[in-house]
Amino acid sequence: MNTEEISRIDQIIDKYEGEEGVLIQLLLDIQQELNWIPKEVAERISQRLNIPQSQIYRVVSFYTAMSLTPRGRHLVSVCMGTACHIRGSPRLLDRITDILKIQPGETSPDRRFTLNTVNCLGCCALGPVMVVDGKYHGKLAPAEAEEVLKNYD
Amino acid sequence: MVNLTIDGKTVTAEEGTYILQVARANSIDIPTLCYHPALEPFGACRLCTVEITSRGRKRLVTSCNYPVEEGLEVSTNSEAVIKGRRMILELLLARCPNVPLIQELAKSYGIKKPRFKLEDDNCILCGLCARICEERMGVSAISFSGRGLERKIDTPFHVHSEICQGCGACAFVCPTGAIKLEDITDKEPRPILSEFNVGLSPRSAIYVPFPQAVPKVPVIDREVCIHFLTGNCRICENFCQAGAINYDQEDEIIEAEVDAIILASGFDLYDPSALEEYGYGKIKNVITAMQYERMISASGPSGGQLQRPSDGKTPKKLAFIQCVGSRDTHHKLYCSSVCCMHATKEAILANEHYPDLKAFIFYTDMRAVGKKFQEYIARAEQEYNVTYIRSRPSKITENPDNGNPIVWYEETTARTRTSMEVDMVVLCQALIPSGSTKDISDMLHLSLNDYQFVDIPDRLFHPVDTEIPGIFACGFCQAPQDIPDSVVQASAAAARAAEFLSKED
Amino acid sequence: MPRINSPAELEELRKAILSKRDPNRPCITLCSGTACHASGSEEVAASIEEEIKKQKLSAEVDFRKTGCHGFCERGPIVVIHPEKICYLQIEPKDVPEIISQTIKGKKVIERLLYTEPTTNKKIVHEFEIPFYKNQERLVFGSNGKIDPKSIDDYLALGGYSALAKVLSQMTPEQVLEEVKKSNLRGRGGGGFPVGRKWEECRNAPGEIKYVIVNADEGDPGAYMDRSLLEGNPHSVLEGLIIGAYAIGSHEGYIYVRQEYPLAVENVHIAIKQAQEYGFLGKNIFGSGFDFTVKVHRGAGAFVSGESSALMTALEGRVGEPRPKYIHTVIKGVWDRPSNLNNVETWATVPLIINKGADWFRGIGTEGSKGTKIFSLVGKVNNTGLVEVPMGMTLREIIFNIGGGIRDGKKFKAVQTGGPSGGVIPEKYIDLPIDFDELTKAGSMMGSGGMIVMDEDTCMVDTARYFLNFLADESCGKCIPCREGIKQMLDILTDITEGRGEKGDIELLEEVAAMVKDFSLCALGTTAPNPVLSTLKYFQDEYVAHIEQKRCPAYVCKELVSYYIDPEKCQACMICLRQCPVGAISGGKNQIHVIDQTKCTKCNTCFEVCPPRFSAVRRLSGEPVPPPVKDRVLVRRKG
């Protein structure tokens, strides 16, 4: 990490210094900022807040919102909620994994896409739903997925 | 205090204790995997589940963390409990089919082959390792990572830990042997070597020095005890049922006015590493006589089996080198007096244990001074395959292919210079007055002779009197001698002291 | 904003707010909940703002972006006040017409209205639409009237009057008694009597106590809490402060899952505004009662919504459940007494205070009082969030409110309680909504997810789906849940992929029994429910999968083959072009044939084959006929 990144991280840690029980909130902010949690960040947090690195690692590896590897430029989320499931989301997901050549939880080698599944976005009326960078694509048939994904580089 | 029944037996317990603790205190067995008396109950294995009836309701709860209450009825082996335990073990066996502990436990519940697809893990995720590291060692070098089926024990970011202190508590407490220290740290753990077994086996920081110790109670070695080094641990305290462990104990300085002193400070072993030519400390299969004694002792670290250090093989050809450091202008000038006989004894013992073992004793002179000592030596040569070679070897090297030591010597009777490859070499090291002899002598203003033994001015008529009246010395601290001689001198010193005291009056 | 220091000042403020609002002034409300957002409500909003400006109506017409209206199937929804004209599925291009015709011209635009499906009648007013008419929207109803980012909207409806009443006229014990008397039961799934829980917390030893809002809402298919928190955060806050007062707590937490960024945002805004008015902080309404609240985001773990796990997460540690033999109301966060309740539970409290426990008890059944919000989703026509009184039957909800099964299919079952619940088949469709009735039938109320399933839903696949979800979300700490769910999932996967064996059902039941009784937390103990309930009511489907390798609903891919009936195929090339893997061969006059080795069973051909041909058939449990030799098309006459 360069000094600029370290100072950004330090600013985020400053926000939480002195409070109890803030590790998860802090890590969420850093994940938002850097798109992943590098080892150096865990070391910095450990130094400044006196939390063992093993506890930080445990938290990051437990929660799906945090990532130990850098996430792709575009986040593709497929809803696997029950309503979407019975409307055919598994088939949609299969098609998407074929197109992107990665499994849910993985990032494509060119760091273009990270694919994950989420449980219920609350748009059950639009199921099955795929969200790319916050944009919702509802009532998506497997055959249409490729067209949508082509637009993202 | 509350009253409760476990399996029909009425017991009392302090309020707030857990069912499992109460059961164990009353010799009722409940199986556990993730429980440890020195750690917070974890409730992960669920094996300790029991059926309770509380306020009229039957429930299944884990006994390791359910607090007892008045009138609680507990059944540790009801049908529901057994059925569930059986299924848990069957599932566990499917995960870890090659772990002996799980195989045994499952077998005791009638399960040999699980009805599920088999994996090949050896970690049961009991968490004992991570918990002991965090809760008792205060280090938190390892922890759980991931969740669900990805859950495992790991170091942060899966790299070697920088904070692991190498105490090995995790590996010690792991019930399946899944924890390997080399996965956690690149530090090599330094075992605490047992002084009594001359470094042949490890001991713990709290230990009974040797079986004949007086008093025979454990002591804590403050130099290596984690508690004294870091302030943590104190697990031994959890286990001592007598509550006898006291970390605050300090050495007591006792002052007493006495009228006579008997010095019997004994001997130490001379470190043969000083004789570099013999390779002690470098060649694995060159050991000292004291180490050999421990090896061949039935109560020693290998139960009396001769297992040479490099590969555990039983030696067929054994060499004893006499006068290692004794009668040597570079080391100790005097003869240590006991080595010729103890070497013979050791060679005889070796042959008694292993009839086709040959021993070679490389001697300068055989000092067989006592009664029947010469006959003993003759018997060794005639009946126990012992060969005496008059020689003081010049060096010992090592055969790199098999670790065999090679003894280089001149056979003085035949006047040939040759070498002999053996399986193991025993160095009969010199014995020296113990380190405390000099310290105490200085304190008492006693002189030491040229050989650093306590000076006895008149050996002929006053063999145990030192130069200071009222101070007597017996045993090795004043001259090399064996056990019978030491005992005689001890009686003499006691008699002289009594005589001296009666005169004082 | 002025600090309100007494109930009297609150009333004055309310009067001032109302005096500035003309109830007869036209107001356009646009549903801006996440679902409508996904349907494009932001673009509609921009369009409305632009159009109002363009037509120079800013001084005469109000525009309010509100929380979720509930009729998510037909979003984006626009309601014109004061007439309450309801327009559905609005797009930006409809906006100019709405402004000129309805706002200025006072004329209703027929094509944007709801059409009653059987009579084809157009319905103008929101409250007459069957979806809404049959509901009792006591807790959720305000969503459509307020902008969640404006506390004044909440105050205009009478907000914070319950809190004022509590702090000035009632003792904590009196509040406790009222809530106990109401028989309110937790809305998060457990259904535990709320008053009793508060009382146990109040009586627990310790000076510092916590109150917690559980907005982790992890059940897939349930989004009531989200819409409530996004759309009316103050109702939750008000209830929380009242509860804190009754229990004796001065610190609260709102745990919101991070997958709900809008809810997090709106809650933060609500807290800030409440603080400015003095409804949070020191000496609220001059009563001497202090209370502060913090927002804590979840990080993507379903299990962290379990109450003891949530409390562990609040401590900054990994959110894994703890043993609860000592209740969390006695030892919770930081080992202090902590009272946790669901979002909907807290939002119900101000109503009970304002209208009284007796009023509340007048609604619902003997064992389950009041109303409940459900997310009615799946194969119904009107998917969305509905609030009904306890005691209404499943049939009424699904058919009268939900509008029946979509696409003319047949009802098969309704799944309630999420991954902890079970399915209820047709023979119990007249079951009343009630905590105990649902549990008796082998399911549970849960947090309110209600997934309607039709003949095209495979029950075995449904059970496998839930187990898969739980296997992902299990924290993995205890053996029964981690290993037990894994093996049950393995068996079910084998069954759905054609490798089922005799004895699988018995083995499933045996594992399920142990997982149910020996797991550490409720995720594990309820994990077998979907399996056990589908086995109970649809065992024939399991048997078909195992013995005949057949999926009656044609869902399990490995057991289904797609086949184009050569007698029916008219070689229209539609399926051929749409097949994403090019598995269909054929031509303009050549019967189409699916290459079984390439087919990925994506169902596209089945869906796109024109209904008048219906040439694509799904086969299961029978071999695929070999392709016909002669593939020249003989066109059908007529």
Descriptive notes:
Chain A has 7 helices and 4 strands, in the order H-H-H-H-E-H-H-E-E-E-H. With 153 residues, chain A is an alpha+beta fold. A 4-stranded mixed beta sheet of chain A has the order 2-1-3-4, covered by helices on one side. In chain A, a hairpin with a 2-residue loop joins strand 3 and strand 4 (135-137). Chain B is of the alpha/beta class and 505 residues long. In chain B, the strands form 7 sheets. A 5-stranded mixed beta sheet of chain B has the order 2-1-5-3-4, sandwiched between helices. Chain B is globular. Chain C is an alpha/beta fold and 638 residues long. In chain C, 38% of the residues lie in helices and 15% in strands. Chain C is built from 24 helices and 19 strands. Chain C has a 5-stranded mixed beta sheet with strand order 12-11-15-13-14. A 4-stranded mixed beta sheet of chain C has the order 2-1-3-4, with helices on one face. In chain C, strands 9-8-7-10 form a 4-stranded parallel beta sheet, sandwiched between helices. In chain C, helix 7 runs parallel beside helix 11 (233-247), helix 8 packs across helix 11 (233-247) and helix 11 crosses helix 14. Chain C is globular, with a radius of gyration of 27 Å. Chains in contact: A-B, A-C, B-C. Chains A and C meet through helix 2, helix 4, helix 5, helix 6 and helix 7 of A and helix 2, strand 11, strand 15 and helix 18 of C.
List the helices and strands and how they pair.
The complex is a heterotrimer of chains A (153), B (505) and C (638).
Chain A: H1 3-16, H2 23-34, H3 39-49, H4 53-62, E1 74-79, H5 82-86, H6 89-100, E2 113-118, E3 130-132, E4 135-137, H7 142-150
Parallel strand pairs in A: 1-2
Antiparallel strand pairs in A: 1-3, 3-4
Helix pairs in contact in A: 1-2, 1-3, 6-7
Chain B: E1 2-6, E2 9-13, H1 19-25, E3 49-54, E4 57-62, E5 73-75, H2 79-95, H3 100-108, H4 128-136, E6 143-145, E7 152-154, H5 169-173, H6 181-184, E8 206-207, E9 219-220, H7 226-230, H8 235-239, E10 261-263, E11 267-269, E12 286-288, H9 289-296, E13 317-324, H10 339-353, E14 358-363, H11 373-383, E15 386-390, E16 395-398, E17 405-411, E18 416-421, E19 424-429, E20 431-433, H12 435-444, E21 471-473, H13 483-504
Parallel strand pairs in B: 1-5, 10-21, 12-19, 13-14, 13-19, 14-15
Antiparallel strand pairs in B: 1-2, 3-4, 3-5, 6-7, 8-9, 11-20, 16-17, 17-18
Helix pairs in contact in B: 2-3, 9-10, 10-11
Chain C: H1 7-19, E1 27-31, H2 34-38, H3 41-54, E2 62-66, E3 78-81, E4 85-87, H4 95-104, E5 114-115, E6 122-123, H5 130-133, H6 151-156, H7 161-169, H8 172-182, H9 194-203, E7 210-215, H10 224-231, H11 233-247, E8 251-256, H12 261-277, E9 292-297, H13 307-314, E10 338-342, H14 343-355, H15 357-361, E11 371-378, E12 384-389, H16 394-401, E13 411-416, E14 422-425, H17 435-440, E15 449-454, H18 459-473, H19 479-496, H20 504-518, H21 522-526, H22 529-547, E16 560-564, H23 574-578, E17 584-587, E18 590-594, H24 604-608, E19 616-620
Parallel strand pairs in C: 1-2, 7-8, 7-10, 8-9, 11-15
Antiparallel strand pairs in C: 1-3, 3-4, 5-6, 11-12, 13-14, 13-15, 16-19, 17-18
